[in-house]
C-alpha cells in the first residue's frame, strides 16, 4: 500500500521522525520531510539524522523543507504542489521538564502547530493523518495499565497539557472534515539517535564517561520503555488502518515497565561500569509510572513490540560509541 503513498513527515530531522522516514522510503513510499531545527538540542544531531535518511533514499524519493509547521499557508501550498496523500505529524517541542520553563513556546509549537498541520492536510486533500500524542496525557492516574478509555483531564506538566489539547483539536477537526486521524500515545521511546535530554541517553553518556548520574526520587518510579523500531512499526500500521476508524487513539508502549533502579543497573551492565548515583528529590512534572494497556493496539493494529529494554539499550550504546562526534556535539 505504501508504494502509492506520498507522505508528509513533520519533525523528520528528529529522533523518531528520522527512523520513520527511513522505514517509509525502504517500504516504497515517497516522503516530504519538514523540520525547523528547533534549538531544543543541537543541529548537528539533526543534520546527522537527515544524512541517515539520505542513505535510505536509493530512488530519490525524499525531499526536505526547512519550514515551521505553524506557517499553515506555506505548508499547505507546498503539500499541494508535492501531491501529498497523507500526513504523519511528529514535530513538537518534546520533553516534560523543559516545558515548565517555557509553557507558551510549547503551546505555540504543539497546539497551534498541530492545528496548522491538520488544516493544511485538509487543504491539500490528504486522505489520512497520524499524530504523535504521549503517555504523559495519563498524568498520575493510579489505575494501571493505562487504557485509551481512561480519563486524561488531569495533566501535570505543560507538555502533557499540550498533548491532551492536540487530541481534542484532532477530534474536532475529524468531526468537521471527516479526515481520518490517528492519535498515538507513545510511551518513552529509546534506541539509536534518542534525544539527548532523555534519561537513557544521559545515563549511558555519563556512566560511559565515568561521571556520576542524578537519580530523582527513590528509584521506584517506572516507565514503559518502547524501542524506536516498534514505534515506527506502530505508526505505519496505524497509517495503513486509520481510514477504517475515523478518529482513533492507540497506545504504543513496550509492555514491560522498568523501575528507575532497574534501568540504572541495566545501564551499568551494558556499559560495563558500576554507575555512581547522586540521590536527588522528586522532579516537578514527572509522573510516577507509565504502563501501556496494549489490548486495543494489538487487536486493531496487530501491534506487538518485540525489543526488550536490555537489547534496545545495547543497540543505543553501540550507536553512541560509533558516533561519538555526533553524541558530543
Ligand atoms: N521520544 C519520546 O519518548 C516520546 C514520547 C512520547 C511522545 N513523543 C512525541 O513524538 C514526537 C517526536 O519526538 P522525538 O523524541 O522524535 O523528538 P525530537 O525533538 O527528536 O523531534 C521533534 C522534531 O520536531 C521539530 N520541530 C519542533 N518544532 C517545530 C516546528 N514548529 N516546525 C517544524 N519542526 C519543528 C524539531 O526540530 C525536531 O527535529 C513528538 O511529538 C513528541 O512529543 C516522543
Describe this structure in words.
- With 329 residues, this protein is of the alpha/beta class.
- It has a single domain, classed as Rossmann fold (3-Layer(aba) Sandwich), CATH 3.40.50.720.
- Helix content is 44%, strand content 17%.
- A 7-stranded parallel β-sheet has the order 3-2-1-4-5-6-11, sandwiched between helices. The protein has a two-stranded parallel sheet with strand order 7-10. A two-stranded parallel sheet has the order 8-13.
- Strand 2, helix 2 and strand 3 form a beta-alpha-beta unit.
- The mean pLDDT is 96.
- Residues 11, 13-17, 34-38, 40, 46, 68-70, 90-94, 109, 113, 132, 134, 186, 188-189, 195 line the site of nicotinamide-adenine-dinucleotide.
